[in-house]
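Write out the 3D structure for:
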Amino acid sequence: MTTLRVPRHALLAHKLTQLRRRETPSSAFRRLLAEIGAILTSEALRDLPEARTPIETPLAPMRAPALAGPEPCLVAVLRAGLGLLEGAQRILPEAPVGHLGMVRDERTLQPSEYVARLPPGLPQRGVLLLDPMLATGGSAIAAVARLKAAGAQTIRFACVVAAPEGAARFAAAHPDVRVLAAALDERLDERGYIVPGLGDAGDRCFGTE
């Protein structure tokens, strides 16, 4: 699982613990997911190339660091990825945004795509893909394949919790895509849910069943 990184970040770990709690209501879950999305975005993009640009401060001119290229596109896997997207947009408010609708068959655990709305400029900008769960890996693998087919050259994937099985399967399918997770959990259960996990992120985020 060489593509996976779990940062040591006390605030991120604290917010994840609150997110995991069974009693956390949907309103707090959405807020925490957005806050975690902002932290993960900053961590996932910490190595973007920099350049020096001349500016004037109130006291003196200087050459200050700035991004060397345009901000990457943000792509959320529907629907739970919308929670992370809210936080990511706080960090990159001008980034183009795309959506991928992936649904998992609860019997076969295989994903299928039902919508794809992707911004132009994927090859030039690259992508930060957002989905709270990396469970079996099926949806994430399919989403990255879709982005590559659309021309994305540089893809980063940020999730909240990952299962070892899904992380290994994802690394085998897309060894060129780095994964950032707030936590690597113990395992998948017989239904393909992450244990200990945090439940169904979409249902908890939007108050559905």
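The radius of gyration is 17 Å.
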